[in-house]
Amino acid sequence: MEPIRLELSDLALLAPELTLVVAAVVLSLLDLLLPRQINRTWLGWLSLAGIIIAALFAVGQLNPAEPKQLLNFSYRADDFAAILKLVLLAGAGLITLMSIGSVKEDEIPHIGEFYYLLLPATLGGMIMASSGDLITIFVGLELLSITSYILVAMRKKDKRSNEAAFKYLVLGGVSSAVILYGMSFLYGMTGSTVIKEINAGLGQASHGMLPLVYLSFFLLLAGFGFKVAVAPFHMWAPDVYQGAPTPVTAFLAVVSKAAAFAILFRFMYNVYAIGDLMNLPFHKDVLLSLMVVAAAAMIVGNFIALRQTNMKRLLAYSGIANSGYLMVPIAIQFSMMHYSNFAEFAFYLIAYLFMNIGILAVLMIVERSTGDDEIKGLAGLYYRAPGTAVAAVLLVLSLAGLPVSGGFFGKLYILLGTLQTQHYWLAAIMIGTSVVSYYFYFGMIRQMFMRSEDVAQPIPTSVPLSVTMWLCAAASVVLGLFPHWLLGYLERIFSLTQDLFIFS
Q1: Number of independent structural domains in the chain
Q2: Distance from first CA to last CA of the chain, Å, rounded?
C-alpha cells in the first residue's frame, strides 16, 4: 500500500488551523515568560488578532472551483467546512472581545491561560468541521472537549465551578466513550475509518449486520446528542452553564455546540442517510429518531425554562430548545421538493450565535453591577443603563423569534422547510414551543422596565464588552431586515453533492 503524504502545497488548505496553532503557542510562551505583575489583558488583543487572521484565511477558502481533500479524504476543504469554520471563529472572536477588560481576576484567576486555551478549543471544532475520517473526528472532538473541561474549571476557588467542571468532565468522558464505542462498530463492519468507505461498506454489510448498524447509530446519536445538549442528553448543561465563567458559558453555548452540529450534520448524512441504506426501513428510522430527539429538546427546553430564576440556567434550557430547532433541518432529509436544509441550518446557527453571545454580554454587564447572575438582576435596567436595555430587548426579541429579527427568520425558514416535507407534527411542535418561550423571554423584558430599589446605581461596563453587545444586537436586526442576503448567499455557494457528500 502506497503511503499517504502531505505535500507542502497542501499546507495552504490548513492555513486557518495553523494560524490558531501558532497563535496559541506564541501566547502561551509570552504568558509563561512575562513577570506576573504585568497585566495580561493585551494577550486578549493578540488572541483576537490570531482569530481574525484565521478567519481571513477561511474566507479565502469559500466557493472553491472544486472541494479539496487531504490524506485520503481524512480532511476536507469545501464550503460546508469553510462556512462553519467562519461561524466558529466569529463566535470565538466575539467571546474574546467581550472578555477583554471585563473579566475580573476573581472570576478567571489566570486570564492569560483563558485567552490561549480558547484557541485550541476552537481549533478542535474546526478540525471536526473538515473531518472525513473517524480518527480525525475523534481527535478534533477530544481537543475541543479537554480544553473545554479546563475552561469550565478556571474558577478554582469557587465550589459551584468545581462541581460543574467535575460533572462536565465525567459526563463528557462517558459521552466520548459512547461515541468511540459506536465508531468501533462501524470500523468492525466495514474495515475502514474513512467515511467515504464506511458508507459503501455498510451498504454491503447491512443485510447481515443490520442490528449492529442500528446499535452504532443509536450510540453515536447519544454521544453527539450530549455534545449538542439535546434532550434526553441535556442534564449537564444547566449546571455547567451556571458554574462556568460567563465567557466560557458563551463558548459552550455557541462554539462548542456549533462544532458538534457540524460533524453531526456531515456524519449522519454521509454514513446513515444516503447510499444503499436508503432502500431499507433503517433509513426512515434514522430520520424519525432525529425528529423525535429534536421534538423532545424543544419541549423539554422551553417548558423547564419557565421555572428558572437564574439567567444562565434559563439560557441553558433555551439552548437545549434551540438545539432542537437546529436539528430539524438535519432530520427532515433533502428531497426534490426541499433541498435548502443546510442554508436554513446555517442561517439559524449564525442568528443563534449573535443573539446568545449578545445576551451573555448583557449578563456580564449586569453581573459587574449586582454581583450575581439571577434574572432579578435585570430589574430596572432601563433606568440604570437605557442603551444596554435597548440592546438587550433587541437580543431577547431575536431569542423569542419575533419579527423583525434574525431569530424570527431563522425559525421561519426551518418551519417552512418542515411544512414542505410534510412533517406537520414536527412543525406543530415548533410553533407550540415557540409560543411557550414567549413567557420567559418577555419576563426578562418585564424585569428591565420594572423600577427597583437600585435604579440610582450606575452600571459600569467596558468598551469591548459594549461593542460586543451592540455588534450582536445590530447583527440580529440586520439579519431580520435583510434575511435574503445571507440565505441567498448560502444557497448560492453551497452544493449538496460537492460540499456535503464526501464520496461525490
Answers
A1: 1
A2: 23
Does residue 3 form part of some domain?
Answer: no
Output the nine-digit C-alpha cell for 165.
467542571
5 falls within a domain: no
Residue 186 identity (one-letter amino acid): L
Q: Is 173 exposed, middle or buried (0-12, 13-18, 19+ CB in 10 A)?
A: middle
The residue count for the chain = 504
> Would you say residue 293 lies in a domain?
yes
Whether 492 is in a domain gets the answer yes
Domain that holds residue 385: 10-500
Q: Give the pLDDT of the chain (504 residues) as one tens digit per residue.
A: 455 566 666 788 889 999 999 999 999 998 888 887 777 788 889 999 999 999 999 998 888 777 888 877 788 888 999 999 999 999 999 999 998 877 776 567 778 888 889 999 999 999 999 998 899 999 999 999 999 999 998 887 778 888 888 999 999 999 999 999 999 999 988 888 888 888 878 777 666 788 888 899 999 999 999 999 998 888 899 999 998 888 999 999 999 999 999 999 888 888 887 666 667 777 788 889 999 999 999 999 999 999 998 999 999 999 999 999 999 999 887 666 677 889 999 999 999 999 999 999 999 988 887 777 888 888 888 888 888 999 999 999 999 988 889 999 999 999 999 998 889 999 999 999 999 999 999 989 998 887 665 555 677 778 889 999 999 999 999 999 999 999 999 999 988 778 777 655
Omega prior to 238 cis, within 30 of 0: no
Q: How far apart are CA 343 and CA 491, in angstroms?
A: 6
